[in-house]
Every structure is written in structure tokens, then in C-alpha cells.
């Protein structure tokens, strides 16, 4: 990637650690590498669960360029648990409508959250440096979470008990041990290189120019995507609004573009003028990139767990990179916590790979299909693409074949070993292996709250009151809807098909892992054990 940076914020001080002043390496329960969104989210989640975490980063700053900007409702639900979603939504640009154009004509528009009754919006746009800054602020509030800036991992070895890290600092090298290591050090992961692992997948030839432009413009806060626009003939363009009057613009360049030349202001500005006219603009960040849709074959290597861009990469169309990485963090953190507490065996950690590798394949599939549609590889594909766009202007059924980037949706863990299959039928949107949908609730005092805000951090038996208050099995917290929390709007009942006595088992990452039409303590206990990695439904543990 070739890039020019016009903005950098948030710089932090290096501080010497007491671990550097002892003869033998100090052992920590969890060490996380990389203070980007995924590493910070993993460390915060663990610390909020009471675990001691050391977070290492080889830099002393964040915020070079906007990078990821588009954060989904699922991501905001995750960040709500981490204590930063409120700041994100307040600062971010909220949107849910997208429009697709062919040349100068609108093909169609779509609404990503047409129904009410959700705390968080469908998407917000927010520069990544703001999110990272909010996460660092949150991390610094937590006991048991230590961030060590300018601590670069230079070597790694592991045995059955721990991972040993060789770390370089401004004061020289030292050794550190971790019972578990989480590698979140980005697309150019040094941990991945040190361990000798690589990606498998596809690298696309087309080059794209990404520009963050500060300007006062009249465009609405929507996602606009043009195929073959009059200002950039034969290619595609994407427009998004960010906070601070900054706009993200992506120009498709083609395979033969020269990255070093394309990022020069004297070459960027004519493209902007052709699109925007005489609007006064200031370039904040510019980069040329190619699409990559690939991942590590395995995310789990002994006691080392790869997450985020260190484990998988997708094209930026569809906003699946950072959003997927934050889902990695949420999936892994509760499992590490359960193992460290002795509530589960290490086989639970293997399911991180099972579930998140499946999610990565799904994201890569969506991303690859979007890239193929945006950048046809031959004349036949180009003809199909153009015919589909023309048809979609008049025939709604054809719109589902138009692909300007299928926007990020929550991961679905089909075939996960942690799920208990249904024995009864259910309607609604609260489905097995999906995140529990949010819904407004009313407290006994008449105040409005949200279902996801009230869920405990551990396993929850979400029970629809039927005149009794049952006792949940050990390790599960009961949440009784209709007794203290009232479904005043009926949206909970609709989404959860909430007949009296219905009970959902919700994992600590807010995924539905079992559901029953009656409260059966034995069935709940068995489903709980299964969700902790004991895969035999009939096992007594």
C-alpha cells in the first residue's frame, strides 16, 4: 500500500515496566499484541471480566489516517459492553440508507434498519482514530489492564505451559511470559511472520484510490456508490460522510495505475474537481490499495490466538474488516475468561477457531463476490454486470444481484459444537447461533431500558414469566421478562416468539445457544455444559 498521511493524533508515553528489572521473565495470564481496535477490545473485555491483561504495542501513537470508518449495529452493540459506544454514536455520523447509481441515474436505494425498537443505529461513520482513542481512554480506566507502548515483540517460543516473548524497548530487551497470547497486530503481523505462518486466498489486480477530504458539501448522510459515473468514466466511485466535515471518497483506478503518482496532490485534485466541481477541499489522507481476500488457514496455534487483520483480510467494500475483527475479540474474550476461571477446559478455546474461521470464510466470500462485480475480469462479466444494473432500475427482483459491497451483518455460527438444537418450533428473529436481538423494555419504575443493556456478562437464562420464578442451574443468571422488566411495546414478544415459559440460553457474547418452550433445569444445565465446550449433549461433565 502506498499512502500519504495528512493527520496524526493521539500520542502516548513510553514507561519502563518493573518486568524489565528482574532476572527471570515474569508470567502473565494474558498478553495481547497490538493496540488497534481489536487488541484494545480484547484486552478491555477480559479486564472487565476481572482478568489481568498486558497489552503491548510497538508504536507510541494511534490515528494515522481514517482507515476503517464504517461501524455496524452489531459492532456498536459490542462496543456498548466495552463502554465506548455512547461516545462513538455521539461523535459519529449515523446513517442507514444507501443508493446505487449507474452513470448519473439512481438504480435503487436500500434501508438497512427499516424497523424501530433498537438502541443502536444500523451504521455510523467514524474515523478509526477516534474509536482507538476512546478505547485507550476506557482501557486506562480499568484495573488490571496495562498498556505498554513502544514494546515490540522480536521473538516467540512456546511450550505446553506458556508463551515466551522477546521484547525490544527504548531501554533495551527483556523477556515476558504469557499463559495465553492474542495476536492483534494487523495485516502486516510480525507475530504471524515470526511463527512462520502465511495467508491463503486471493489478491485482486485492480487499484483503488481512497481519499479523505474535508469540505462543506450538500450530499446527504447516505452511502452513495456509482458505477461508471460521468466524472470518472469506466470505473466506480464510493462516497461516505464522516464527522468533522470529512468525506471518504474511493475511486477505482484500474490495474495499471502507478501508486506513487496517484497519491500526489496534483493528481488527486483533478479527480476531486471532476466529481465535486469548485467546492473548496482539503485532503486529510490519501492512499492507493489493492483488494485482498485471504486468511490464515488456522487462527489457533497452541497458546497463540490470531484475531482481526492479523488473521484475515477483506476488501473495504462492505465494511467487514474492523467489524469482523471486533467480533473476533468478543468471541475469544469470554472463552479465555471461562478457561482461566476453571469453568471450561481448553477445548472451548479451540472453538474460537471453529467459529471465527467460519465467519472469516463468509466475509471473504461476500467480499470476493463484491470485488468481482465492481471490477469485472472479462468482457462476459462486464456485460452481465451492466445488464444487471440496467434491469435493476426497473425490476426490483434484479436489485439483489447488484453488488456494490454487501454491508457487514452479524456472524452466524452454523454447525458450531456449542449449540443445542431445537426440539420445538420458534418464530421471530431470535435464532440459534445468531446474536440476541435487542428490544426496548420497561422497568418497574416505568423507565425505558434495553434488553442488551440488562443482560449479565455471563450465561443468561432469558425466561418469559409464567407465574413462577424458577431457579437456574449453577453458572447461569436468570432474567425474567414480565416480572420486573416489562415488554411494554410488544417488540420483545415479537422477536423472541415469547410464549409464557419460553427460555433462551444466551452466551456471554450475547449469542443464542439454546432455546426451550419450558424451563427445564436439566436441559439448561446440559446446554450450558455444551456451550462451555463439553460437546456430548448427554455428558454429566
Using the 3D structure, state the CATH architecture of the domain at 2-89 and 124-198 and 294-367: 3-Layer(bba) Sandwich
Total helices: the number is 13
> Which percent range fits the helix content?
25-40%
The named CATH superfamily of the domain at 2-89 and 124-198 and 294-367: FAD/NAD(P)-binding domain
Mean pLDDT score: 91
CATH class value of the domain at 2-89 and 124-198 and 294-367? Alpha Beta
Q: How many E strands?
A: 27
Q: What is the fold-level CATH name, i.e. the topology of the domain at 2-89 and 124-198 and 294-367?
A: FAD/NAD(P)-binding domain
Give a quick account of the main beta sheet: strands, pairing sense, barrel closure.
9 strands, mixed
Quick synopsis:
The chain is of the alpha+beta class. The chain contains 13 helices and 27 strands.
Give a structural overview:
This protein has 541 residues and is of the alpha+beta class. It contains 13 helices and 27 strands. It has helices at 37-48, 73-82, 85-91, 128-141, 190-194, 259-262, 265-276, 321-340, 347-374, 379-392, 451-454, 491-496, 521-531; strands at residues 2-5, 26-33, 53-57, 70-72, 93-95, 97-102, 105-111, 123-125, 145-149, 152-158, 163-169, 172-183, 199-214, 223-227, 236-242, 246-254, 282-296, 300-301, 304-306, 312-313, 440-443, 448-450, 459-464, 476-481, 485-486, 503-506, 512-516. Helix 2 packs across helix 3. Residues 1-8 and 536-541 have low confidence and may be disordered.
Amino acid at each position: 500500500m502506498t499512502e500519504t498521511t495528512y493527520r496524526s493524533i493521539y500520542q502516548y508515553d513510553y514507561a519502563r515496566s518493573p518486568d524489565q528489572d528482574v532476572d527471570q521473565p515474569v508470567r502473565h495470564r494474558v498478553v495481547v499484541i497490538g493496540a488497534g481496535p481489536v487488541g484494545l477490545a480484547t484486552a478491555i473485555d477480559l479486564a472487565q471480566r476481572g482478568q489481568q491483561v498486558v497489552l503491548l504495542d510497538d508504536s507510541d501513537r494511534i490515528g494515522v489516517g481514517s482507515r476503517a470508518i464504517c461501524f455496524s449495529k452489531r459492532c456498536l452493540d459490542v462496543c456498548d459492553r466495552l463502554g465506548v459506544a455512547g461516545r462513538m454514536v455521539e461523535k459519529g455520523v449515523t446513517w442507514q440508507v444507501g443508493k446505487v447509481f449507474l452513470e448519473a441515474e439512481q438504480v435503487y436505494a436500500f434501508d438497512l434498519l427499516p424497523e424501530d425498537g433498537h438502541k443502536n443505529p444500523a451504521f455510523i461513520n467514524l474515523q478509526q482514530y477516534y474509536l482507538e482513542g476512546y478505547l485507550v481512554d476506557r482501557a486506562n480506566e480499568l484495573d488490571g489492564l496495562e498498556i505498554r507502548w513502544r514494546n515490540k515483540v522480536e521473538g516467540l517460543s512456546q511450550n505446553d505451559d506458556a508463551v515466551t516473548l522477546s521484547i525490544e524497548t527504548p531501554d533495551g530487551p527483556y523477556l515476558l511470559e504469557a499463559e495465553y497470547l492474542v495476536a492483534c497486530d494487523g495485516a502486516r503481523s510480525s507475530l504471524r511472520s515470526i511463527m512462520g505462518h502465511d495467508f491463503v486466498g486471493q489478491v485482486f489486480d485492480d487499484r483503488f484510490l481512497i481519499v479523505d477530504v474535508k469540505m462543506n458539501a450538500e450530499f446527504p448522510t447516505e452511502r452513495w456508490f456509482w458505477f461508471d459515473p460521468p466524472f470518472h468514466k469506466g470505473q466506480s466511485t464510493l462516497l461516505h460522510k464522516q464527522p468533522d466535515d470529512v468525506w471518504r471518497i474511493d475511486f477505482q483506478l484500474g490495474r495499471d495505475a502507478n501508486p506513487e503518482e496517484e497519491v500526489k496532490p496534483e493528481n488527486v485534485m483533478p479527480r476531486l474537481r471532476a466529481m465535486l466541481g469548485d467546492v473548496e477541499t482539503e485532503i486529510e489522507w490519501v492512499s492507493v490499495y489493492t483488494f485482498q481476500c485471504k486468511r490464515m488457514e488456522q487462527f489457533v496455534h497452541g497458546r497463540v490466538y490470531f484475531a482481526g487483520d492479523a488473521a484475515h483480510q477483506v476488501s473495504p467494500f462492505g465494511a467487514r474488516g474492523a467489524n469482523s475483527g471486533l467480533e473476533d475479540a468478543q468471541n475469544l474474550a469470554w472463552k479465555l475468561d471461562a478457561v482461566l476461571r476453571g469453568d471450561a477446559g481448553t477445548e472451548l478455546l479451540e472453538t474460537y477457531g471453529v467459529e471465527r474461521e467460519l465467519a472469516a470464510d463468509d466475509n471473504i466470500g461476500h467480499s470476493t463476490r463484491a470485488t468481482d462485480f465492481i471490477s469485472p475480469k472479462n468482457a462476459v462479466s462486464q456485460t452481465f454486470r451492466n445488464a444487471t444494473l440496467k434491469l435493476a432500475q426497473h425490476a426490483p427482483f434484479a436489485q439483489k444481484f447488484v453488488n456494490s459491497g454487501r454491508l457487514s451483518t452479524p456472524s452466524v455460527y452454523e454447525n458450531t459444537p456449542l449449540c443445542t438444537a431445537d426440539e420445538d418450533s420458534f418464530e421471530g428473529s431470535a435464532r440459534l447461533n445468531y446474536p440476541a436481538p435487542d428490544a426496548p423494555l420497561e422497568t418497574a419504575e416505568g423507565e425505558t431500558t434495553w434488553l442488551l443493556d440488562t443482560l449479565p456478562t455471563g450465561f443468561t437464562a432469558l425466561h418469559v414469566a409464567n407465574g413462577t420464578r424458577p431457579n437456574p442451574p449453577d453458572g447461569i443468571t436468570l432474567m425474567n421478562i414480565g416480572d420486573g422488566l416489562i415488554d411494554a411495546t410488544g417488540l420483545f414478544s415479537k422477536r423472541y416468539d415469547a410464549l409464557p415459559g419460553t427460555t433462551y440460553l444466551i452466551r456471554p457474547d450475547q449469542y443464542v445457544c439454546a432455546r426451550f418452550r419450558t424451563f427445564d433445569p436439566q436441559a439448561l444445565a446440559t446446554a450450558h455444559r455444551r456451550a462451555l465446550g463439553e460437546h456430548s449433549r448427554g455428558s454429566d461433565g
